Amino acid sequence: MKRRELRYEEACKKDLKFLSKVDRTIITDVKAAVDILLDYELLPDEYKDHPLQRLYSGYNDFHVRDPEKGEKPDDKNDVVIYKLQNSGKKLLLVRVGSHLKLFHDQYSSK
Predict the structure, then answer these.
(1) According to CATH, what is the number of the domain 5-90?
(2) Given a cut of 90, is residue 77 above it in pLDDT?
(3) A biological process (GO) annotation for this entry (predicted)?
């Protein structure tokens, strides 16, 4: 079966470039999960793939790194926001980063 086409939002490219300077292993972790999605497979439960709401309604995210049970997300808990397009034939990577940066900074006062 043919793989999904992979596309990146410009913000995602910047996120990946930044993260590669901070911790190169995150790139390997993201690539492993993306490869699963490109093959039309479901991510294993450990990734906690789920649909998003509000600002990102229509998008999904999966967790590359998670806090330990009972801990709150911090800047080391990385998620990938993505969207399937064209009847699932295209995978658009939107953002990659810490849960705090991607979901909580958007509400901080300017």
Answers:
(1) 3.30.2310.20
(2) no
(3) mRNA catabolic process
